[in-house]
Design goal:
GO molecular function: DNA binding; metal ion binding
Number of helices: 11
Structural class: alpha+beta
Shape: globular
Helix content: 40-55%
Strand order of the largest sheet: 10-9-8-11-12
Largest sheet: 5 strands, mixed
GO biological process, one term: transposition
Family: In the C-terminal section; belongs to the transposase 35 family. In the N-terminal section; belongs to the transposase 2 family.
Number of domains: 3
Radius of gyration: 26 Å
InterPro entries: Cas12f1-like_TNB, RNA-guided_DNA_endo/Transpos, RNA-guided_DNA_endonuclease, Transposase, Transposase_put_HTH
Number of strands: 14
Strand content: 15-25%
Bound molecules: zinc ion
Distance between the termini: 41 Å
Keywords: DNA recombination, DNA-binding, Metal-binding, Transposition, Zinc
Oligomer: single chain
């Protein structure tokens, strides 16, 4: 199976190389801002002319947003706009203009309603302070040098913080690097290679096994087949005391002040770096835990059933936001989607409106209400009494049998991963977010098969 996979390595550039990397990222921003200024001026000019009643065919011609024409214009004016341009790779400017082209077409498509997802605004100028520092190289010398260095255009040979042997072996077997992106992330420079590689077809250890996974805050994951539940590690929570202390230490010191132009003191910088390290540690622990969970599931089970949690909507709930973000539901789902694909399994996603918690896994009765604080599911009909999340996991697993096996919520490409989150109402079955009227809950995308339709799409 041909896959596109990213390999990210932390870098250990010298001070000079670090400055060159920062300069490249600055060049990306300058090119982006230059292009945006051109486009904005052109749009404003045409708008003004229109307001004077000039007919459309006599207006100042519209500026093309294509990457090609922007690059052509940039090359004509770069000596004036950025006389220092030769200090950076041309890829940096191309990268900035490509990002502008993407941003503009996203905006236009969003305006015209041809783009899915939330509304995209008109691109804004990037500021030195806020803009993420990153630059992408797509041409030129991009390769590994031994197991400890990478080679990038203009920047040359940079030492990596961690060994790159795994990728080196892959490249020796015929994998191909399509691009390299250097980013300042988590207090370090990282390079991430986009690699086209052949992945041997995988097979899960138990291809016929079905597992329902109920994700939650109390317990991160509860399974339908008796596999021990994964406790929520709550990394952020555990680090909170320490983070507060470190933040106080930063606040007491002489920090930067834009209004007065005050530079941060050495002590402030040290304290700030310590706080950042503590934050990065939380992120790294979370990332590691989620990868271990999803890899183990995808390698073991042929079919994994999860709920379509509306994470973005749930995060709007202030009381849950921090715990939800710390748990990383969205990332778990994303990783399960591609890892089941890699391992020859499939991921089924139950509709957001499937009452997995409120249904009795024994007799199928559905409760109208089940507040979050009730941790044990007790069925009035058949007398079943079991852990709330276990009950939900069982319901998810049994969804596979109830839908036509192999053609239910599974999708055209066989990965079961392309079921798009439907637009509209916030909140899953378990949030306290106000729900919209049922009429708003129209699911777009592949229409459900007759067997599944009522069950999965059932509203509460
Ligand atoms: Zn029951």
């Amino acid at each position: 199976m041909q896959v596109v996979q990213a390999y990210r390595f932390a870098l250990d550039p010298t001070a000079r190389q670090g400055a060159a990397l920062a300069s490249h990222c600055g060049a990306v921003r300058v090119a982006f801002n230059w292009g945006l200024a051109q486009v904005k001026a052109n749009l404003a000019q045409r708008e003004a002319e229109r307001s004077y009643g000039i007919p459309d065919d006599q207006l100042t011609p519209a500026l093309s947003w294509s990457m090609y024409s922007l690059r052509k214009r940039w090359n004509q004016v770069k000596d004036e706009v950025a006389p220092w341009w030769a200090g950076n790779s041309k890829e940096a400017y191309a990268c900035g203009l490509a990002r502008l082209t993407d941003a503009l077409s996203n905006w236009r498509d969003s305006q015209q309603g041809t783009r899915k997802g939330p509304k995209m605004g008109f691109p804004r100028f990037k500021t030195k302070r806020r803009a993420a520092r990153s630059v992408r190289f797509t041409t030129g010398t991009i390769r590994l040098d031994g197991h400890t260095h990478v080679i990038l255009p203009v920047l040359g040979r940079i030492k990596t913080h961690e060994p790159v042997g795994k990728l080196a072996r892959l490249l020796a077997e015929g994998a191909r690097i399509a691009s390299a992106t250097v980013r300042w992330q988590e207090g370090r420079w990282h390079v991430s290679f986009t690699v086209h590689t052949e992945r041997p077809p995988g097979k899960p250890a138990r291809p016929d096994a079905v597992i329902g996974v109920d994700l939650g805050i109390k317990t991160l994951a509860v399974f339908s087949d008796g596999r021990p539940p994964v406790p929520n590690p709550r990394h952020l929570n555990n680090a909170m005391r320490k983070l507060r202390r470190l933040s106080r230490a930063v606040a007491r010191k002489h920090g930067p002040d834009r209004r007065t132009g005050q530079r941060p003191s050495q002590r402030w910088q040290r304290a700030n770096a310590a706080r950042n390290r503590a934050e990065y540690r939380v992120a790294a622990l979370r990332r590691d835990g989620i990868h271990q969970l999803t890899t183990s599931l995808a390698r073991t089970y042929g079919t994994i059933v999860v709920e379509d949690l509306h994470v973005a909507g749930m995060i709007r709930n202030r009381r849950l936001a921090r715990a939800l973000s710390d748990a990383g539901f969205g990332e778990i789902r994303r990783q399960l989607a591609y890892k089941t694909g890699w391992n020859g399994g499939r991921l089924l996603v139950a509709s957001r409106w499937f009452p997995s918690s409120k249904t009795c896994s024994s007799c199928g009765a559905v409760k109208t209400k089940l507040p979050l604080r009730v941790r044990t599911y007790v069925c009035e009909g058949c007398g079943l009494s079991m852990d709330r999340d276990e009950n939900a996991a069982l319901n998810l697993a049994s969804l596979v049998e109830r839908t036509v096996a192999g053609s239910g919520p599974e999708t055209e490409n066989g990965r079961g991963a392309d079921r798009k989150t439907p637009p509209g109402g916030a909140g899953g079955c378990e949030t306290s977010t106000p729900h919209r009227a049922p009429t708003a809950r129209i699911r777009r995308g592949p229409s459900p098969t007759p067997g599944e339709s009522l069950r999965i799409l059932e509203t509460q």
